[in-house]
Amino acid sequence: MTELFDQIKARMLRPVPRYRAIKDRTGDRQGMLTVLRQMPVEPAIVWLCKCDCGTFIEVESRRLIHRESCGCLRSLASRARWSKHHAG
Ligand SMILES: [Zn+2]
């Protein structure tokens, strides 16, 4: 066990090459989006995400923090506003 910890520690202390410095976001939840995997797209970092509504979208890493759905959340919200506005 100690050996394994030493190995991990050694790996952490080693300088990380630029291309390996990408934070693995696989499995992360962002709003309604779940990050499934990184897409093999260069040079941008693109993640394949699945929305709770079932839609798959590709989101650039730096945009991911601003995305909460595939776009359906916005249309749902506007629909809710619309029905509220027109109710009564
Ligand atoms: Zn959606």
The number of E-state strands comes to: 4
Form type? elongated
| Share in β-strands | 15-25%
What percent of the residues sit in helical stretches (DSSP H or I)?
Answer: 25-40%
Radius of gyration: 19 Å
Ligand inventory = zinc ion
Which blocks of ≥5 consecutive residues have pLDDT under 50? none
Mean pLDDT: 82
Overall number of structural domains:
1
Helices and strands: which structural class?
alpha+beta
What summary fits the major beta sheet?
Answer: 4 strands, antiparallel
For the largest beta sheet, what order do the strands appear in spatially? 1-2-3-4
What is the terminal separation in angstroms? 67 Å
Order of helices and strands: HEEEEHH
Note the total helix count: 3
